[in-house]
Amino acid sequence: MGEIWEGFKDAYNLLISFDEEVYKIILLSLYVSLTATFVSSFFSVPAGIFLGIVDFKFKKVVVRGIYTLMSMPPVIAGLVVFLLISRKGPFGFLGLSFTPAAMIIAQTCLVIPIITGIVYNGTKQKGQRIKMVAKTLGADKFQTLSLLLKELRVNVFTGIVTGYGRAISEVGAVMIVGGNIKGYTRVMTTSIAMLQSMGDYSMAIAIGIVLIMISFVINGILYNFQQGE
Amino acid sequence: MGEIWEGFKDAYNLLISFDEEVYKIILLSLYVSLTATFVSSFFSVPAGIFLGIVDFKFKKVVVRGIYTLMSMPPVIAGLVVFLLISRKGPFGFLGLSFTPAAMIIAQTCLVIPIITGIVYNGTKQKGQRIKMVAKTLGADKFQTLSLLLKELRVNVFTGIVTGYGRAISEVGAVMIVGGNIKGYTRVMTTSIAMLQSMGDYSMAIAIGIVLIMISFVINGILYNFQQGE
Amino acid sequence: APTEETSKEVKNSSIILATTTSTENSGLLDYLLPVFEKDTGIKVKVVAVGTGKALKMGEDGEADVLLVHAKSSEEAFVKAGHGLERFDVMYNDFVIIGPKNDPAKLYENASNDVIKAFKLINKGNAKFVSRGDDSGTHKKEKKFWEEAGIEPKGDWYLSAGKGMGDVIQMANEIEGYTLSDRATYLSMKDKIDLEILVEGDNKLFNQYGVIAVNPNKNEKINNDGAQKFIDWILGEKAQGLIKAFGKDKFSKPLFIPNAR
Amino acid sequence: MQISINNLVKEYNGHRVLDVGYLNINKGTILGIIGPNGAGKSTLIKIIGGLEEATSGQVYYNGKKIYSQKDITVVFQKPYLLRTTVFNNVAYPLMIRKEKKKAINNKVNKILKEIGIENLKNQKAWTLSGGEMQKVALARALIFRPSLLILDEPMSNMDPSSIAIMEEMIKKINQIEKTTVIIITHSLQQAKRICKEVVFMHKGKVQEFGSMKEVIFNPKNHITKAFIQGELLIS
Amino acid sequence: MQISINNLVKEYNGHRVLDVGYLNINKGTILGIIGPNGAGKSTLIKIIGGLEEATSGQVYYNGKKIYSQKDITVVFQKPYLLRTTVFNNVAYPLMIRKEKKKAINNKVNKILKEIGIENLKNQKAWTLSGGEMQKVALARALIFRPSLLILDEPMSNMDPSSIAIMEEMIKKINQIEKTTVIIITHSLQQAKRICKEVVFMHKGKVQEFGSMKEVIFNPKNHITKAFIQGELLIS
Ligand SMILES: Nc1ncnc2c1ncn2[C@@H]1O[C@H](COP(=O)(O)OP(=O)(O)OP(=O)(O)O)[C@@H](O)[C@H]1O
Ligand SMILES: Nc1ncnc2c1ncn2[C@@H]1O[C@H](COP(=O)(O)OP(=O)(O)OP(=O)(O)O)[C@@H](O)[C@H]1O
Ligand SMILES: [Mg+2]
Ligand SMILES: [Mg+2]
Fold first, then answer.
1. Interface with chain B: mutation pick from D96, D127, D151, highest number of B CBs within 10 Å
2. Closest to A76 in 3D by CA, of A50, A46, A48, A113
3. For residue E205, is it within any domain?
4. CA of E158 relative to ligand 3 center, distance in Å
């Protein structure tokens, strides 16, 4: 219990210490998870919208597959990516193992189904009508997509926030593909896991608090994009 | 790479081996994560609906707080629950540390914000109109809630599926509060993490495959509840 | 009241053992504990963590008994009153493992001199993966660097903050060196390309100890069970079992019992 | 139910869209509300129906501030139908009133037949045509015999013969059960056919209130006059 | 734009809701579609507007199967407005046609003024009253001068004087730009005022097609006759 309160104190000290290592860890976390969220959104938001308004054979199976992949354990995503990019793997020649790039790839795999699933769900409910209006007003394919994006922004926002939440908070995938190398691939969650495994609870909680505070700010920024209502 | 294909073979062998330990692990995973999802839904679905239709002071802050808690790292959730229920913690007298009950509690904490956030989002968009209709037709509070549930079932479904996905796939929280004790608190994700750290990749992937297959079935069952459209 | 009695019985019938990953991952506990449970009726719940965390769990009274390998920390632990008494149980040894082609030429020049080997790694600018997690192994490694007069820092030195198995895999992936306990290495040998390059130095001795957690921490601590476990594992039967463990598979025991 | 309104004001961000000083609606009347778009008609009835808060002012139901929501119903301008079948939509108010299954069946079948949509009974509500939706919404409100029935342009998408049937039903319920009916309409014809009294609203204010004849043939107010002339212009 | 329809059929789960053998809509006409609820009017115009697939049959636009969606617009029975201001809603078709900002401004302000809602310019679309929404939806369709304008009960919630204004605008566009207009309405009065030709539909079939006078004063078909009498009954 005491550790929780101490965690708050430590979090404060951590932030005002301006320790370079701490800030590097925070920045790398943000870089990796935000990039993964951004890359995923780039594919998933259009994919979710597409799924929501277009009918095709086996659509039901695809949708159920996506919902299922929402339950993909981060460790498995990490492991599969690791095996693909490892020295002996098919993409070994790229030399990606234990790099931030590998961490981004693994998190992207994890986040894609989440954003796709949530955006699909919102589109299914309102997408058809929006598409029709766009059509009647003479919008081309790209304009229709951008209108759908605008009108469905609340759902897109929820999808992205949920996806970001998954990315920033997961530890299994980045731990495996990144390796938690000090000064290079160590991020907030891997630090937390490490500190926890070393029994340094209050420091672990301190970093957790910092992580949550940062998420609060980031959600605020994302929230402003979907505003205007 | 080869490990991935071997993983499929191993998954098959695992399932047809009818090994008691394997089935115990699978069943415990399901028990813990489904119970956590169920308990969370019980609180979160009404809470999300409530947030979506009722206005109050500081609502915006509460909503942003919930979105933020979606990014709570499982390790932190696990750690905080652990400190609370640990022998010297305030709830130590309950003797919950390293028990399945503790795992359920930790996962519940993790899943509550996710379901609440997604349900809130759906309710915000349609809840007000549904509430009005219920009112005009003379529904009392409970009947209104049950009508909202029915009409918003697609959103509720997405929330529950996303929450379940988080619960079944996370390893950080259950590892800490459960301890990965063989035959007692070992679940699929902690097994995967352990096998992975022992370098037994194909077996780790095999369990991952089994986990995903099970999620496919569970999502199918959940999906049927929201059908009827 | 009858309920109190049953709850006491349940309490007596199980203990929490905090230990390092090496004892669990090597399969030793899976091999020993069923026998213990049959002999005493006490169920053992194993929580496998690093030595640092295991000691912390003891300090917090979260575990009843510890089986760890960091002798000086263990003695400090007992001295601070967190544990009752420390006993030697068994030992194995540490080894330096590395890639077959051995770029820093450890096997050629330092096959039984760990300090020299560390110097060679540093001089050859070969990659080294450190546990970096304050575990028993990590503490040992730090001591060697100190003795070698090297401050491990730079691109060649990767501090991973992970368990032994993970670190071995990392070393394997980047074709670097690492310090490992023999048991974990042997249990993973088939899956990796690393070989033992340095062994046999007295400094690489790895002693495991058992400690009962001081029951004054909280009333949930099952000291009776812990004592029974200590008595049992130090006893002839268990020591014999330890000696036999792994012989068939590795032709050598993984741990050598040395209880007095 | 008798309704009286006292100094009712509704503002949105300081913009006043409703400002009704005093209005008394007698039990058993059929009151028509007419007036141009944006006059505040829907806002007024939403407040009366307890679905929106007034910025200030009061509504009294039979002289009291409280009322049972079970007695009042509102049919919206854009009906919201539940995502289920036509039958279940119409049966819903009876179901929540815990009527017997058989009674529900009889009542629903009867009303669906009366308005000529018994063939749509098992159709999903969201596949209905616009007029069909309005019929279902109206049937759902009429079936549980509220004592105050508020209708917001309930027949705007219906065909003429359906309108005739619906108007008959409303008149009948009003006669037999003494239900107070408030109906917003843009059709002076319709107001003439069914309303006993009529209110003319403009820019949030009640400009005219009186019997049908008074308001239409003898408007006191030049705005009302202009509105009615506009109507005559197009009919 | 000239439209001809050939054996158009629409079925839902085997239930036929539309079955139009042959129908020719001349360029520059104003065609009214009347008929009871559920007759298939909305279904027909959705297919013509390219918004729904027919189960079988063809629609030809100026003799061809292909057409530019930029030339055709449909105003729905329940308008869907974008979640933004009135101005942005009306400006949207011009924006996607990449008109200059100034030109857009002028055009939008002009049309809002013409229909008397310039004061709502900056109001969010979802706060509008029912009639105001219809005005915005109609303005949004009229502003970009389509060559085929399809309207599904576009004025059902408007007040009489707004209806008069809107009808004038439609007639003017039809005259000046030779826009083909198809309008569904339940008001025979309205059909009389603006339509050159009229189609009477019943149960998915075209029962009657001809000039306004022919259909209304001299219906060939007893169903049409009954419908028109129903209308007379209430008006
Ligand atoms: N949230 C809001 N913000 C600003 N103005 C609003 C808001 N809600 C409604 N209004 C305005 O209030 C006025 C009254 O609306 P109301 O729906 O009561 O009109 P109405 O008389 O029912 O019109 P109609 O005949 O078109 O249905 C309208 O001009 C509308 O634009
Ligand atoms: N998905 C569907 N399944 C079954 N029936 C449907 C479906 N969609 C539409 N219908 C039916 O098709 C018929 C024609 O509908 P449509 O909307 O074209 O009618 P309409 O002539 O426009 O009527 P209204 O005047 O009420 O607007 C209706 O009876 C409707 O119930
Ligand atoms: Mg209105
Ligand atoms: Mg229609």
1. D96
2. A113
3. yes
4. 9
* Any domain includes E70: yes
What is the pLDDT at residue C6? 41
Q: Which domain holds residue D168?
A: 3-80+147-229
Taking CB atoms and a 6 Å cutoff, what residues make up the pocket around ligand 2?
D 123, 127-132, 157; E 12, 15, 17, 37-43, 77
Contact D158 E37 (CB under 8 A): yes
Q: CA C234: distance to chain centroid?
A: 17
Query: Nearest to residue A202, comparing CAs of A20, A21, A13?
Result: A13
Taking alpha carbons only, the member of C42, C80, C79, C92 closest to residue C64 is: C42
Average pLDDT along chain C: 89
Report yes or no for ipTM above 0.85.
yes
Cross-chain residue pair A76–B211, CB shorter than 8 Å: yes
Q: With cut-offs at 50, 70 and 90, classify the pLDDT of residue D158.
A: very high
Full domain range(s) for residue A15: 1-224
pLDDT in tens, C3-37: 444 444 444 578 999 998 888 888 899 999 999 99
Q: Which of A6-10, A65-69, B20-24, C18-22 has the lowest mean pLDDT?
A: A6-10
Q: Which residues of chain A lie closer than 8 angstroms to B193, CB-CB?
A: 75, 172
Answer whether D23's CB lies under 8 Å from E143's CB: no
- Which residues have CB under 6 Å of ligand 1? D 12, 15, 17, 37-43, 77; E 123, 127-132, 157
Over the stretch E119-146, which tens digit does the pLDDT of each residue have? 999 999 999 999 999 999 999 999 998 9
Coil, strand or helix at A209 = helix
- Inform me whether the C-beta atom of residue E235 falls under 8 Å from chain D C-beta atoms: yes
Give domain status of residue A229, yes or no: no
The CATH number of the domain holding residue D63 is 3.40.50.300
Contact assignment for D83 to B140 by CB distance below 8 Å: no
Q: What is the pLDDT of residues E205-229, one digit of tens each?
A: 999 899 888 887 778 878 888 777 7
Residue B22 pLDDT greater than 60, yes or no: yes
**Nearest ligand 2 atom to alpha carbon D120:** 31
Mutate to test the interface with D, among E129, E187, E231 (most CBs of D within 10 A): E129
Mean pLDDT across A98-109: 96
Task: Report yes or no: B189 and A175 within 8 Å, Cβ to Cβ.
Answer: no
Please tell me the residue having the least CA distance from ligand 1 atom 18: D40
Is residue B228 pLDDT above 60, yes or no? no
In chain E, how many domains are there?
A: 1
**How many domains are there within chain B?**
1
Min distance C127 CA to chain A CA atoms (Å): 12
Buried b (16+ CB within 10 A) or exposed e, A205-223: bbbbbbbbebbeebbeebe
d(CA B122, CA B141) in angstroms, rounded, equals 19
**Beta strands of chain A (E only): which ranges?**
none
User: What is the pLDDT at residue E22?
Assistant: 92
- Protein residue with its CA nearest to atom 1 in ligand 2: D127
* Euclidean distance between CA atoms E227 and D190, whole angstroms: 18
This prediction's pTM: 0.90
Instruction: Give pLDDT, residue B1.
Output: 61
Residue B50's nearest CA partner among B66, B74, B34 is: B66
D31's tokens: 């009151």
Q: Model confidence over D187-199: pLDDT tens digits?
A: 988 999 999 999 9
Structure tokens at A141: 């394919």
φ, ψ for residue E233, nearest 5 deg: -55, -45
Interfacial D residues in 27-66 facing E (CB < 8 Å): 35-38, 41-42
Query: The CATH number of the domain where B105 resides is what?
Result: 1.10.3720.10
Residue nearest to atom 19 of ligand 2 (CA): E38
B229 falls within a domain: no
E179 within some domain: yes
Tokens encoding C200: 């046999």
Q: Which residue has the tokens 């048991």?
A: C183
E14 falls within a domain: yes
